[in-house]
Protein backbone atom coordinates (compact mmCIF):
# COMPACT_ATOMS: atom_id res chain seq x y z
CA UNK A 1 0.00 0.00 0.00
CA UNK A 2 1.37 3.42 -0.96
CA UNK A 3 2.34 5.61 1.96
CA UNK A 4 0.89 9.06 2.34
CA UNK A 5 3.26 12.02 2.56
CA UNK A 6 2.54 12.42 6.25
CA UNK A 7 3.27 8.75 6.96
CA UNK A 8 6.54 9.02 5.05
CA UNK A 9 7.55 12.14 6.99
CA UNK A 10 6.89 10.47 10.33
CA UNK A 11 9.03 7.49 9.31
CA UNK A 12 11.91 9.78 8.29
CA UNK A 13 11.64 11.73 11.52
CA UNK A 14 11.62 8.58 13.63
CA UNK A 15 14.57 6.91 11.90
CA UNK A 16 16.74 10.06 11.93
CA UNK A 17 18.76 8.65 9.02
CA UNK A 18 18.66 11.97 7.15
CA UNK A 19 20.10 13.82 10.12
CA UNK A 20 22.86 11.23 10.40
CA UNK A 21 23.53 11.51 6.68
CA UNK A 22 23.81 15.29 6.93
CA UNK A 23 26.04 14.91 10.00
CA UNK A 24 28.40 12.61 8.11
CA UNK A 25 28.65 15.00 5.17
CA UNK A 26 29.21 17.93 7.54
CA UNK A 27 31.97 16.08 9.38
CA UNK A 28 33.69 15.22 6.10
CA UNK A 29 33.39 18.86 5.02
CA UNK A 30 35.06 20.03 8.22
CA UNK A 31 37.81 17.41 7.95
CA UNK A 32 38.60 18.55 4.41
CA UNK A 33 38.76 22.20 5.43
CA UNK A 34 42.52 22.68 5.04
CA UNK A 35 42.52 21.16 1.56
CA UNK A 36 39.43 22.99 0.32
CA UNK A 37 40.13 25.92 -2.01
CA UNK A 38 39.50 29.29 -0.40
CA UNK A 39 37.03 29.90 -3.21
CA UNK A 40 35.49 27.29 -5.54
CA UNK A 41 37.10 26.72 -8.91
CA UNK A 42 35.44 26.86 -12.31
CA UNK A 43 34.54 23.16 -12.31
CA UNK A 44 32.73 23.39 -8.97
CA UNK A 45 30.81 26.47 -10.05
CA UNK A 46 29.93 24.87 -13.39
CA UNK A 47 28.62 21.87 -11.46
CA UNK A 48 25.91 24.06 -9.97
CA UNK A 49 24.09 23.87 -13.29
CA UNK A 50 22.73 20.53 -12.07
CA UNK A 51 20.22 22.54 -10.06
CA UNK A 52 18.87 24.25 -13.19
CA UNK A 53 15.94 21.91 -13.74
CA UNK A 54 12.14 22.08 -13.71
CA UNK A 55 10.23 21.50 -10.50
CA UNK A 56 10.07 17.69 -10.26
CA UNK A 57 6.68 16.07 -10.69
CA UNK A 58 7.54 13.48 -8.08
CA UNK A 59 10.05 14.48 -5.44
CA UNK A 60 13.39 12.80 -4.78
CA UNK A 61 13.90 10.68 -1.72
CA UNK A 62 15.24 12.57 1.28
CA UNK A 63 18.55 10.71 1.00
CA UNK A 64 18.91 11.72 -2.65
CA UNK A 65 18.18 15.35 -1.81
CA UNK A 66 20.95 15.42 0.81
CA UNK A 67 23.34 13.52 -1.49
CA UNK A 68 22.79 15.95 -4.33
CA UNK A 69 23.16 18.98 -2.11
CA UNK A 70 26.38 17.72 -0.54
CA UNK A 71 27.91 16.46 -3.79
CA UNK A 72 27.37 19.63 -5.80
CA UNK A 73 26.86 22.25 -3.09
CA UNK A 74 29.80 21.49 -0.82
CA UNK A 75 32.51 22.11 -3.46
CA UNK A 76 30.81 25.40 -4.44
CA UNK A 77 31.11 27.04 -1.03
CA UNK A 78 33.46 29.84 -0.03
CA UNK A 79 35.79 28.38 2.61
CA UNK A 80 34.66 30.57 5.48
CA UNK A 81 35.37 27.77 7.92
CA UNK A 82 39.05 27.87 6.93
CA UNK A 83 41.78 30.30 7.83
CA UNK A 84 42.55 31.81 4.43
CA UNK A 85 39.29 33.42 3.35
CA UNK A 86 39.87 37.14 3.87
CA UNK A 87 36.88 38.52 1.96
CA UNK A 88 34.10 40.88 3.09
CA UNK A 89 34.92 40.76 6.84
CA UNK A 90 33.28 37.33 6.98
CA UNK A 91 33.82 35.55 10.26
CA UNK A 92 34.18 31.85 10.89
CA UNK A 93 32.07 29.82 13.30
CA UNK A 94 33.17 28.75 16.76
CA UNK A 95 32.61 24.97 17.10
CA UNK A 96 30.44 25.44 20.19
CA UNK A 97 28.32 28.11 18.51
CA UNK A 98 27.97 25.92 15.41
CA UNK A 99 26.85 22.96 17.52
CA UNK A 100 24.34 25.20 19.28
CA UNK A 101 23.09 26.33 15.87
CA UNK A 102 22.50 22.69 14.88
CA UNK A 103 20.49 22.12 18.04
CA UNK A 104 18.56 25.33 17.48
CA UNK A 105 17.76 24.22 13.93
CA UNK A 106 16.25 21.00 15.26
CA UNK A 107 14.24 23.01 17.77
CA UNK A 108 13.18 25.28 14.87
CA UNK A 109 12.05 28.15 17.05
CA UNK A 110 10.32 31.34 15.94
CA UNK A 111 11.62 34.06 18.24
CA UNK A 112 8.81 36.54 17.61
CA UNK A 113 7.35 36.51 21.12
CA UNK A 114 7.73 34.62 24.38
CA UNK A 115 4.78 32.39 23.50
CA UNK A 116 6.46 31.20 20.31
CA UNK A 117 9.75 30.43 22.05
CA UNK A 118 10.43 30.87 25.77
CA UNK A 119 14.05 29.75 25.32
CA UNK A 120 14.72 32.30 22.57
CA UNK A 121 13.12 35.01 24.68
CA UNK A 122 15.23 34.14 27.72
CA UNK A 123 18.49 33.96 25.78
CA UNK A 124 17.75 37.26 24.06
CA UNK A 125 17.40 38.85 27.50
CA UNK A 126 20.58 37.24 28.82
CA UNK A 127 22.63 38.00 25.70
CA UNK A 128 21.37 41.59 25.70
CA UNK A 129 22.75 42.06 29.23
CA UNK A 130 26.02 40.30 28.45
CA UNK A 131 26.72 42.29 25.29
CA UNK A 132 25.82 45.55 27.03
CA UNK A 133 28.30 44.74 29.80
CA UNK A 134 31.05 43.54 27.46
CA UNK A 135 30.86 46.66 25.32
CA UNK A 136 30.51 49.07 28.23
CA UNK A 137 27.20 50.46 27.00
CA UNK A 138 24.58 52.16 29.20
CA UNK A 139 22.84 49.64 31.45
CA UNK A 140 19.43 50.51 29.98
CA UNK A 141 20.50 49.45 26.47
CA UNK A 142 18.09 47.12 24.66
CA UNK A 143 18.95 44.81 21.76
CA UNK A 144 17.07 43.74 18.67
CA UNK A 145 18.28 40.47 17.16
CA UNK A 146 18.42 41.00 13.40
CA UNK A 147 20.09 39.55 10.31
CA UNK A 148 23.09 41.86 10.36
CA UNK A 149 24.32 45.43 10.29
CA UNK A 150 22.17 46.45 7.32
CA UNK A 151 19.05 45.81 9.36
CA UNK A 152 20.61 47.02 12.62
CA UNK A 153 21.57 50.38 11.11
CA UNK A 154 18.04 50.71 9.75
CA UNK A 155 16.69 50.08 13.26
CA UNK A 156 19.02 52.61 14.86
CA UNK A 157 18.17 55.34 12.38
CA UNK A 158 14.46 54.53 12.61
CA UNK A 159 14.66 55.00 16.38
CA UNK A 160 16.50 58.28 15.83
CA UNK A 161 13.85 59.46 13.40
CA UNK A 162 11.02 58.62 15.80
CA UNK A 163 12.69 60.27 18.81
CA UNK A 164 13.84 63.49 17.15
CA UNK A 165 10.52 64.06 15.39
CA UNK A 166 8.64 63.27 18.61
CA UNK A 167 10.67 65.91 20.41
CA UNK A 168 9.74 68.34 17.63
CA UNK A 169 6.04 67.59 18.13
CA UNK A 170 5.61 65.23 15.15
CA UNK A 171 4.39 61.61 15.27
CA UNK A 172 5.98 59.96 12.25
CA UNK A 173 4.06 56.71 12.78
CA UNK A 174 0.71 58.46 12.50
CA UNK A 175 1.46 61.41 10.24
CA UNK A 176 4.23 60.07 8.01
CA UNK A 177 7.00 62.23 6.58
CA UNK A 178 4.99 64.58 4.36
CA UNK A 179 5.15 67.95 6.07
CA UNK A 180 7.41 66.68 8.86
CA UNK A 181 10.32 68.78 10.14
CA UNK A 182 13.40 68.14 7.98
CA UNK A 183 15.95 66.00 9.80
CA UNK A 184 19.64 66.10 8.94
CA UNK A 185 21.96 63.14 8.33
CA UNK A 186 25.65 63.83 9.02
CA UNK A 187 28.31 61.21 8.36
CA UNK A 188 31.85 60.78 7.07
CA UNK A 189 32.66 60.55 3.39
CA UNK A 190 33.67 56.92 3.85
CA UNK A 191 30.51 55.83 5.60
CA UNK A 192 29.44 52.28 4.79
CA UNK A 193 26.97 51.73 1.95
CA UNK A 194 24.48 50.22 4.39
CA UNK A 195 24.15 53.60 6.10
CA UNK A 196 23.30 55.21 2.78
CA UNK A 197 20.81 52.42 2.08
CA UNK A 198 19.10 52.92 5.45
CA UNK A 199 18.89 56.66 4.79
CA UNK A 200 17.12 55.92 1.51
CA UNK A 201 14.76 53.33 2.99
CA UNK A 202 13.74 55.66 5.81
CA UNK A 203 12.81 58.45 3.43
CA UNK A 204 15.53 60.93 4.40
CA UNK A 205 16.85 61.08 0.83
CA UNK A 206 20.48 60.32 0.08
CA UNK A 207 20.93 63.70 -1.61
CA UNK A 208 20.33 65.30 1.78
CA UNK A 209 23.27 63.60 3.50
CA UNK A 210 25.83 66.07 4.83
CA UNK A 211 29.17 64.36 4.22
CA UNK A 212 32.12 65.30 6.42
CA UNK A 213 35.73 65.12 5.24
CA UNK A 214 37.92 62.29 6.49
CA UNK A 215 41.63 61.94 7.17
CA UNK A 216 44.15 59.63 5.49
CA UNK A 217 42.80 56.65 7.44
CA UNK A 218 39.14 57.29 6.60
CA UNK A 219 38.34 58.74 10.02
CA UNK A 220 35.82 61.55 10.16
CA UNK A 221 37.60 64.81 11.03
CA UNK A 222 35.87 66.23 14.09
CA UNK A 223 36.95 69.78 13.27
CA UNK A 224 35.13 69.54 9.94
CA UNK A 225 31.79 68.70 11.56
CA UNK A 226 28.96 71.12 10.84
CA UNK A 227 27.15 72.78 13.72
CA UNK A 228 24.65 70.27 15.08
CA UNK A 229 21.11 70.92 16.28
CA UNK A 230 18.12 69.00 17.57
CA UNK A 231 17.27 67.86 14.03
CA UNK A 232 20.64 66.13 13.51
CA UNK A 233 21.38 62.41 13.21
CA UNK A 234 25.11 61.68 13.19
CA UNK A 235 26.45 58.33 11.93
CA UNK A 236 29.94 57.36 13.09
CA UNK A 237 32.08 54.28 12.42
CA UNK A 238 33.72 51.85 14.80
CA UNK A 239 35.86 50.17 12.18
CA UNK A 240 36.17 51.67 8.72
CA UNK A 241 35.24 48.89 6.32
CA UNK A 242 38.49 49.40 4.40
CA UNK A 243 41.12 50.55 6.88
CA UNK A 244 39.56 49.46 10.17
CA UNK A 245 39.96 52.98 11.60
CA UNK A 246 37.69 54.42 14.30
CA UNK A 247 36.00 57.81 14.27
CA UNK A 248 36.59 60.28 17.16
CA UNK A 249 33.53 59.43 19.25
CA UNK A 250 33.94 61.36 22.46
CA UNK A 251 33.97 64.94 21.22
CA UNK A 252 31.27 64.40 18.59
CA UNK A 253 28.95 62.48 20.92
CA UNK A 254 29.29 65.16 23.55
CA UNK A 255 28.55 67.89 21.02
CA UNK A 256 25.46 65.97 19.91
CA UNK A 257 24.21 65.49 23.44
CA UNK A 258 24.60 69.17 24.21
CA UNK A 259 22.11 70.13 21.47
CA UNK A 260 19.74 67.14 21.53
CA UNK A 261 21.09 65.43 18.41
CA UNK A 262 21.26 61.64 17.99
CA UNK A 263 24.41 59.60 17.32
CA UNK A 264 24.42 56.13 15.79
CA UNK A 265 27.64 54.10 15.72
CA UNK A 266 28.07 51.59 12.90
CA UNK A 267 30.29 49.00 14.55
CA UNK A 268 29.66 45.88 12.48
CA UNK A 269 33.02 44.34 13.34
CA UNK A 270 34.85 47.07 15.24
CA UNK A 271 32.46 47.61 18.14
CA UNK A 272 33.84 44.43 19.71
CA UNK A 273 37.09 46.34 20.32
CA UNK A 274 35.35 47.70 23.41
CA UNK A 275 35.49 44.19 24.89
CA UNK A 276 39.28 43.98 24.51
CA UNK A 277 41.78 45.23 27.06
CA UNK A 278 44.27 46.07 24.31
CA UNK A 279 41.88 47.68 21.83
CA UNK A 280 39.27 49.31 24.07
CA UNK A 281 40.89 52.69 23.62
CA UNK A 282 39.80 52.74 19.98
CA UNK A 283 36.17 53.03 21.08
CA UNK A 284 36.61 55.68 23.78
CA UNK A 285 33.46 57.77 24.02
CA UNK A 286 31.28 55.55 21.84
CA UNK A 287 29.15 54.71 24.89
CA UNK A 288 27.89 58.30 24.72
CA UNK A 289 26.04 57.52 21.48
CA UNK A 290 22.35 56.64 21.42
CA UNK A 291 22.36 53.54 19.22
CA UNK A 292 24.85 51.05 17.84
CA UNK A 293 24.92 48.26 15.26
CA UNK A 294 27.16 45.22 15.54
CA UNK A 295 27.41 41.71 14.10
CA UNK A 296 28.03 38.47 15.94
CA UNK A 297 28.92 36.72 12.69
CA UNK A 298 32.02 38.83 12.10
CA UNK A 299 34.48 39.37 14.93
CA UNK A 300 32.69 37.14 17.46
CA UNK A 301 32.53 34.22 15.00
CA UNK A 302 28.94 33.13 15.52
CA UNK A 303 27.36 31.27 12.58
CA UNK A 304 25.49 33.34 10.02
CA UNK A 305 23.40 35.28 10.47
CA UNK A 306 23.52 37.21 13.73
CA UNK A 307 23.24 40.99 14.03
CA UNK A 308 22.33 43.29 16.89
CA UNK A 309 20.55 46.63 16.91
CA UNK A 310 21.49 48.21 20.24
CA UNK A 311 19.72 51.27 21.58
CA UNK A 312 19.87 53.20 24.85
CA UNK A 313 16.38 54.59 24.18
CA UNK A 314 14.11 51.56 24.47
CA UNK A 315 10.95 53.56 23.83
CA UNK A 316 12.30 55.02 20.59
CA UNK A 317 13.39 51.64 19.23
CA UNK A 318 10.11 49.95 20.13
CA UNK A 319 7.90 52.76 18.86
CA UNK A 320 9.84 52.99 15.60
CA UNK A 321 9.39 49.27 14.94
CA UNK A 322 6.00 48.72 16.52
CA UNK A 323 3.62 46.00 15.41
CA UNK A 324 0.29 44.94 16.81
CA UNK A 325 -2.55 42.56 16.09
CA UNK A 326 -5.55 41.10 17.86
CA UNK A 327 -3.72 37.77 18.14
CA UNK A 328 -0.67 39.30 19.87
CA UNK A 329 -1.04 39.21 23.64
CA UNK A 330 1.76 40.97 25.47
CA UNK A 331 2.87 39.66 28.81
CA UNK A 332 5.63 40.32 31.32
CA UNK A 333 8.25 38.36 29.38
CA UNK A 334 10.40 39.63 26.53
CA UNK A 335 8.83 39.70 23.07
CA UNK A 336 11.80 40.08 20.76
CA UNK A 337 9.81 41.33 17.78
CA UNK A 338 9.31 44.64 19.60
CA UNK A 339 12.91 45.58 18.83
CA UNK A 340 13.21 44.46 15.20
CA UNK A 341 11.43 45.06 11.87
CA UNK A 342 10.48 41.37 11.71
CA UNK A 343 8.02 39.23 13.59
CA UNK A 344 9.04 35.75 12.48
CA UNK A 345 12.75 35.32 13.13
CA UNK A 346 15.21 32.49 13.55
CA UNK A 347 16.37 32.15 17.16
CA UNK A 348 19.74 33.87 16.70
CA UNK A 349 20.05 34.44 20.42
CA UNK A 350 20.87 30.76 20.88
CA UNK A 351 24.02 31.02 18.74
CA UNK A 352 25.07 34.28 20.37
CA UNK A 353 24.50 33.02 23.89
CA UNK A 354 26.50 29.86 23.12
CA UNK A 355 29.43 31.88 21.77
CA UNK A 356 29.49 34.21 24.77
CA UNK A 357 28.95 31.40 27.30
CA UNK A 358 31.84 29.46 25.76
CA UNK A 359 34.26 32.38 25.41
CA UNK A 360 33.48 34.42 28.49
CA UNK A 361 35.11 37.82 28.87
CA UNK A 362 38.61 36.37 28.68
CA UNK A 363 37.87 34.37 25.54
CA UNK A 364 36.36 37.36 23.74
CA UNK A 365 39.47 39.34 24.66
CA UNK A 366 41.75 36.57 23.35
CA UNK A 367 39.77 36.18 20.13
CA UNK A 368 40.03 39.88 19.31
CA UNK A 369 43.75 39.85 20.09
CA UNK A 370 44.19 36.82 17.83
CA UNK A 371 42.47 38.40 14.84
CA UNK A 372 44.30 41.70 15.19
CA UNK A 373 47.70 40.09 15.69
CA UNK A 374 47.21 37.95 12.57
CA UNK A 375 46.31 41.08 10.62
CA UNK A 376 49.53 42.77 11.71
CA UNK A 377 51.41 39.58 10.88
CA UNK A 378 49.96 39.63 7.36
CA UNK A 379 50.78 43.30 6.89
CA UNK A 380 54.37 42.82 8.05
CA UNK A 381 54.93 39.76 5.88
CA UNK A 382 53.60 41.46 2.75
CA UNK A 383 55.54 44.64 3.44
CA UNK A 384 58.77 42.65 3.72
CA UNK A 385 57.99 41.24 0.26
CA UNK A 386 57.70 44.74 -1.21
CA UNK A 387 53.94 45.25 -1.17
CA UNK A 388 52.62 48.63 -0.09
CA UNK A 389 50.57 48.66 3.12
CA UNK A 390 48.31 51.69 2.84
CA UNK A 391 46.67 51.85 6.26
CA UNK A 392 47.65 51.91 9.88
CA UNK A 393 46.72 48.37 10.93
CA UNK A 394 44.87 49.28 14.12
CA UNK A 395 42.39 46.39 14.08
CA UNK A 396 41.82 43.50 11.65
CA UNK A 397 41.90 45.22 8.25
CA UNK A 398 44.90 45.44 5.91
CA UNK A 399 45.01 47.46 2.69
CA UNK A 400 47.56 46.17 0.20
CA UNK A 401 48.80 47.41 -3.18
CA UNK A 402 51.54 46.71 -5.69
CA UNK A 403 53.67 49.39 -7.30
CA UNK A 404 50.98 50.20 -9.86
CA UNK A 405 47.21 49.88 -9.90
CA UNK A 406 47.40 47.62 -12.94
CA UNK A 407 49.77 45.29 -11.11
CA UNK A 408 47.46 45.27 -8.09
CA UNK A 409 44.46 44.27 -10.20
CA UNK A 410 46.39 41.53 -11.98
CA UNK A 411 47.86 40.22 -8.74
CA UNK A 412 44.58 39.94 -6.86
CA UNK A 413 42.90 38.28 -9.84
CA UNK A 414 45.64 35.64 -9.80
CA UNK A 415 45.40 35.23 -6.02
CA UNK A 416 41.66 34.68 -6.24
CA UNK A 417 42.09 32.11 -9.00
CA UNK A 418 44.80 30.24 -7.09
CA UNK A 419 42.46 28.92 -4.40
CA UNK A 420 45.19 29.32 -1.78
CA UNK A 421 43.49 32.32 -0.23
CA UNK A 422 40.85 34.85 -1.19
CA UNK A 423 40.66 38.61 -0.67
CA UNK A 424 38.63 41.30 -2.36
CA UNK A 425 39.30 44.80 -3.60
CA UNK A 426 38.10 48.24 -2.63
CA UNK A 427 38.55 51.81 -3.80
CA UNK A 428 40.89 53.68 -1.48
CA UNK A 429 41.03 57.40 -2.26
CA UNK A 430 40.61 56.71 -5.95
CA UNK A 431 42.94 53.71 -6.21
CA UNK A 432 41.90 50.07 -6.54
CA UNK A 433 43.58 48.20 -3.70
CA UNK A 434 43.39 44.79 -2.05
CA UNK A 435 41.45 44.51 1.20
CA UNK A 436 42.49 41.71 3.56
CA UNK A 437 40.02 41.14 6.40
CA UNK A 438 41.27 38.79 9.10
CA UNK A 439 38.11 37.66 10.85
CA UNK A 440 38.35 33.92 11.50
CA UNK A 441 39.44 32.13 14.67
CA UNK A 442 41.02 29.46 12.45
CA UNK A 443 43.62 31.72 10.81
CA UNK A 444 47.09 30.54 11.85
CA UNK A 445 50.61 31.83 11.26
CA UNK A 446 50.95 29.08 8.66
CA UNK A 447 47.90 30.46 6.86
CA UNK A 448 49.53 33.89 6.83
CA UNK A 449 52.74 32.43 5.41
CA UNK A 450 50.90 30.46 2.70
CA UNK A 451 48.81 33.50 1.80
CA UNK A 452 51.85 35.75 1.62
CA UNK A 453 53.52 33.29 -0.74
CA UNK A 454 50.36 33.23 -2.87
CA UNK A 455 50.54 37.03 -3.15
CA UNK A 456 54.23 36.95 -4.06
CA UNK A 457 53.76 34.21 -6.66
CA UNK A 458 50.72 35.96 -8.13
CA UNK A 459 52.62 39.23 -8.48
CA UNK A 460 55.47 37.42 -10.21
CA UNK A 461 53.12 35.77 -12.69
CA UNK A 462 51.31 39.05 -13.29
CA UNK A 463 54.57 40.84 -14.03
CA UNK A 464 55.29 38.36 -16.81
CA UNK A 465 52.00 39.24 -18.45
Give an account of the 3D structure.
There is one protein chain. With 465 residues, this protein is of the alpha/beta class. The chain has 2 domains: 9-77, no CATH class; 99-356, 3-Layer(aba) Sandwich (Aspartate Aminotransferase, domain 2), CATH 3.40.640.10. 42% of the residues lie in helices and 12% in strands. It has helices at residues 5-15, 17-31, 42-46, 62-73, 95-107, 118-135, 149-167, 172-175, 193-201, 249-259, 314-320, 348-384, 405-418, 445-463, and strands at 142-146, 184-188, 209-212, 232-237, 262-266, 291-295, 307-311, 388-389, 397-401, 424-428, 431-437. A 7-stranded mixed β-sheet has the order 1-7-6-5-4-2-3, sandwiched between helices. A hairpin with a 7-residue loop joins β8 and β9. It is globular and about 65 Å long.
Quickly describe the structure.
This protein has 465 residues and is of the alpha/beta class. 42% of the residues lie in helices and 12% in strands. The protein has helices at residues 5-15, 17-31, 42-46, 62-73, 95-107, 118-135, 149-167, 172-175, 193-201, 249-259, 314-320, 348-384, 405-418, 445-463, and strands at residues 142-146, 184-188, 209-212, 232-237, 262-266, 291-295, 307-311, 388-389, 397-401, 424-428, 431-437.
Output the structural class: alpha/beta
The percent range for helix content is 40-55%
Give the CATH topology of the largest domain. Aspartate Aminotransferase, domain 2
Uncertain stretches of 5 or more adjacent residues: none
* CA-based gyration radius: 24 Å
CATH superfamily caption of the largest domain = Type I PLP-dependent aspartate aminotransferase-like (Major domain)
* CATH level-1 class of the largest domain: Alpha Beta
The first-to-last residue Cα distance is: 68 Å
Major sheet characteristics: 7 strands, mixed
In what range is the share of β-strand residues? 5-15%
Widest β-sheet, arrangement of strands = 1-7-6-5-4-2-3
